[in-house]
Amino acid sequence: MAEPDRTAAAPRSVGVVGAGVIGTSVAHAVAAAGLRVVLVDSDQAALDTARAGVRRHQRLGRLKGGPQIALDLRFTGDLRELSDVDFVVENITESEQAKSALYEELDRVLRPDVPIAANTSAIPIALLAAPLADPSRVVGAHFMNPVALIDTVEVVRSPKTSDAALGALTALLTRMGKQWITVNDAAGFVINRVLMVVANLAAALVAEGVATPAQVDGLFRGCLGHRTGPLRTADLIGLDTVVRTLDVLHDHYGTAEYVAHPALRQRIAQGDLGQKSGSGFFTYDRS
Ligand SMILES: NC(=O)c1ccc[n+]([C@@H]2O[C@H](COP(=O)([O-])OP(=O)(O)OC[C@H]3O[C@@H](n4cnc5c(N)ncnc54)[C@H](O)[C@@H]3O)[C@@H](O)[C@H]2O)c1
């Protein structure tokens, strides 16, 4: 597939909507690339957690002797503070309904020429863009957690995505030091259409007593050379987001491999959401 013009200018200011697991990681990485960032969330507790998380990572970076980067990163509950940004990355909860309502609001708040990168796990980009007066300004940017450490981004071009929106995104990614692979629009794109099935089956193996989480992941690492196994990856994503993504995939494809295993829903009901809650398939030190 043809890659867009790599000479487009990077935006100077970026609005990041959704200060959860991935939105915080995106906001931090964009700010660390020297851009002005406004991070918006409708939940004050999420903003507080995001602020504390960014501070913790900055402190850890300093302790490890990393560069001292002063971040221009503002936290707010007011979407109207995005009225003057050059680019937006949307990372709110994986729900078609919630995202559609937000995109209608973004259409009112943003300048009409501002591209929107949808960081969704599975919802088709064209569907998210539909409520906008100009759907060509929406492009998919599927970042991986933690954004600072993973150097490739799955970029998604819908049939309506403009060259300008794609060019603005790839200019931002270049500024962030990222590579990308651009694919066509389909629910789950490439990674999650496959990865979610693997995570779901791995959860089934553990529920059936075939293997422990450490054994499942150990086999993927040791035998296949994967950097992490599917269950630690699911924990890192958040088991609630994994199940929401499986639900989106099931809504779109209707096939059995996307029916979330009850053991995943049970862990969520117990508050075991993965790394963000301190326990999932594995336990985590959150200090
Ligand atoms: N977790 C990952 O590794 C990962 C990776 C790539 C993409 N994604 C996708 O990114 C999105 C966010 O995932 P997450 O894991 O960060 O979820 P999360 O549940 O950790 O965070 C979502 C945040 O969105 C906020 N929010 C919800 N509605 C809002 C609104 N209308 N306005 C402002 N804020 C709102 C919530 O308060 C919450 O803080 C989802 O679409 C997910 O599929 C997640």
Kindly describe this structure.
With 287 residues, the protein is α/β, with parallel strands linked by helices. It has two domains: 13-184, Rossmann fold, CATH 3.40.50; 193-275, N-(1-d-carboxylethyl)-l-norvaline Dehydrogenase, domain 2, CATH 1.10.1040.10. It is 43% helix and 13% strand. The chain has ten helices and eight strands. The protein has helices spanning 21-32, 44-63, 96-109, 125-129, 163-175, 191-207, 213-224, 230-237, 239-253, 262-269, and strands at residues 13-17, 36-40, 73-76, 87-90, 116-118, 138-142, 152-157, 179-184. Strands 3-2-1-4-5-6-7-8 form an eight-stranded mixed β-sheet. Helix 4 (125-129) links the parallel strand 5 (116-118) and strand 6 (138-142). It is globular, with a radius of gyration of 19 Å. The protein starts with 12 loop residues before the first strand and ends in an 18-residue tail after the last helix. The mean pLDDT is 95. Nicotinamide-adenine-dinucleotide is lined by residues 17-23, 40-43, 46, 91-94, 98, 102, 119-121, 142-143, 145, 237-238, 241, 245. Nicotinamide-adenine-dinucleotide binds at residues 17-23, 40-43, 46, 91-94, 98, 102, 119-121, 142-143, 145, 237-238, 241, 245.
